[in-house]
Amino acid sequence: MSLDFWPELDPAMVSMLLKIAVVVVVVYLVNRSFSWVMRTLQKRRDADRRLYRQIRVVFTYVVYGVGFILVLSIIEVDVSWIFASVGFAGIVVGIGAHDIISNFLSGIFLIFERTYQVSDVVRIGEVYGIVRLIKVRSTEIRTFDRNIVSIPNSMIASTNVVNMTSGSDKMITSITVKLAYGEDYERVKTLMKDVASTVDGVFIDAAHDVKFEITNIGERYHGLNLIMYFYLEAINEPWIRSEVHEKINKVLVTSGVEFHRDSPK
Questions:
Q1: Domain coordinates of the chain in residue numbers?
Q2: Alpha helices (runs of H) in 126-225, residue ranges in sequence order
Q3: CATH class of 115-163
Q4: Domain spanning 170-254: CATH 3.30.460.80
Q5: CATH no. for 11-96
Q6: CA distance 183 to 175
C-alpha cells in the first residue's frame, strides 16, 4: 500500500508541536500534583479549606500563565510586552493590596512551617487560648474566657508564638509555692504530688511524671520557691490548674507547712 498521499511534514513544525505538547503535559501534571499535595495537607492539618483553595487557585494561575508564555515563545511571538504588563500590574496591586498579600503569604508560611495547628494551645503576644481556625488572612484564637480573637497572619509572622501542645491534647504547666527556710520541702513535694494526682485532667504516669525545681527568693529574703511541673488536659488548663492550686494550698495549710512571708533578713 502506497503512503504517497501523506503530506510531507515540516521538521520545524513537528519540533514546535512536540515542544508545545511537552509544555502542556508538564503544566497539567505540575498543577495536578500541587493540588493533590494541598488537599493532603488540608486533611492532615485541619486548617480552613478556603486557605488551601486560595493557594491552589493562585498556583494554578501562575503555572498556566507560565505555560502560556512558553507556548508563545515556542511559536516565536514577542512576549516582552507581557512581562512589562505583569510588572506594572504587580506594582499597582502590591501598593493597593499590601496587607492582603502580606497576610496571605504569611498564612502559607504558617502552613508549611507548622507553627501550630487547629486545637493547639498557643500564646501569641498577649493572646492565650486554643487555635480555632487558620484562615486565608488571619488565625482565630478562642481564649479560655470564651472570646474569639482574630489575629492577622502577617502580625503572627512577626510575633513570638509559644505552642504549648504542638498537636498533643496535653500540656505542661507549673505551680509555685513559697516556703520558709528550714521547711521540709521533700515532705511538701510528696503532699503536692499526691494532691495533683487526685484531680481529674491531671496526668501522672511513667510518661508524664511530676518534676520539681527549687530556687531562692531573692538575696535579702528567707525563703525558697518550690515549683511543681505537671501535665494536664490542655483545653481545660486554667480551670484544672486553679483546682490543683486551691487543693494544694488547703492541704499544705492543714499540714502545718510554714510559708515564706516576704520578710527580710
A1: 11-96, 115-163, 170-254
A2: 153-157, 185-196
A3: mainly beta
A4: no
A5: 1.10.287
A6: 18
pLDDT by residue (tens digit) across 189-244?
999 999 999 999 999 887 888 899 888 876 666 778 899 999 999 888 889 999 99
Contacts of 156 (CB under 8 A, 6+ apart): 106, 110, 115, 124, 139
Q: Residue 263: pLDDT above 50?
A: no
Q: Nearest-CA neighbor of 15 among 76, 78, 69?
A: 76
If DSSP states are collapsed to H, E and C, what string results for 9-65?
CCHHHHHHHHHHHHHHHHHHHHHHHHHHHHHHHHHHHCCCHHHHHHHHHHHHHHHHH
Rounded-to-integer distance, Cα 132 and Cα 118, Å: 6
Grid cell of 8 as nine digits: 510531507
Residue 173, C-alpha cell as written in the block:
504547666
